[in-house]
Amino acid sequence: MAAMLGSLEEDQDVLGHRGVALDTKTIRTIAYRYAARARLVQQVENGAFEDTVAGRRVVISSDGGRLRLRETKRGPQTKKGRGRYTGAWREPKVLLVYVVDAEGKRDATFVPVMDATLKGPDAVFALLRTYLQRLEITQADQVLFIADGAPWIWKRVPLLVQALGLAAAQVEELLDFYHAVQHLGQVAALRKDWSAKARAQWRTQQRRFLLQGQVEQVIAAVQAICRGRNSKAIRTQRDYFIKNQSRMAYAKLVAMKLPIGSGAIESTVRRVVNLRLKGPSLFWCRASAEAILLLRSYYKAGRWNMLKHMATSPLALLEA
Fold first, then answer.
1. I want to staple 209 with a disulfide (CB 3.0 to 4.6 A). Which of 40, 103, 165, 214 is the partner?
2. How many Cβ atoms sit within 10 Å of the Cβ of residue 79?
3. pLDDT in tens, 143-196
4. For the whole model, what pTM was predicted?
5. What residues contact 263, with CB distance under 8 A and at least 6 apart?
6. By C-alpha distance, which of 222, 218, 217, 225 is closest to 194?
7. Where in the chain is the domain with CATH 3.30.420?
8. Quick one: fold of 49-175+261-283?
9. d(CA 199, CA 196)
């Protein structure tokens, strides 16, 4: 219930209708301890999954969400004797692993792998490495890393590929096509002397070049309009395309019938983080957020039985 519903109060209400009378404090304790036991076992177990990616085409993606943490603030207590705190925005990192068929559509015979943590980029990539090793990723036919342009992702992908022992021929790195198009729109918007129609035409033309694999022509087009009062901002956008040029082989990936958009991970962030942990006047303690992120990830992925196995295994007694 804590993973499925929107709040502990909803959990209490639904359980009450089913004849289970528990207060929110008890539900919270049960849920958070359950998650802690599962995470502990996850860290010490290294067995292979029952699923296999052997001979399959695997898509791997990561992105960040947003939630507010309740962090202790120095200073005197309030008039009611309560401690002060700040509600800082923090970015939980989310990972997703799924399989696509020969037509590039998600393969329903493979249950996706989802997880999330607030511990930072290195922690989420450590989790990703563990999952991929257990999936025996080296036996995959093709491995595609796809994400937006966040530097924290792309500077860690080559290290992960090396650590996993993947062959260069197995791996493709791709910048999400729609993020690239969004940057084209930002470039066009910086040309204040253009009409709305001229901006749309320029953006459409460059979008077509991107899909055709003519990234050099797009870079040249951006460079050609790099003048005037917004030239510095346009140069920043030009550098974005130069930096990610090697990850813009959209024509090649379309021909291989592999995804060119990262909509799957964005949907995962929405379902795992936004619809459960993000909301008005909603502040989380770090440990509580970590627990719900784990429970929610496995529930939304369809791997609840795996989480249950970890939380109730003999190794989990070590945590209890």
1. 214
2. 6
3. 999 999 999 999 999 999 999 999 999 999 999 999 999 999 999 999 999 999
4. 0.92
5. 178
6. 225
7. 49-175+261-283
8. Nucleotidyltransferase; domain 5 (3.30.420)
9. 5
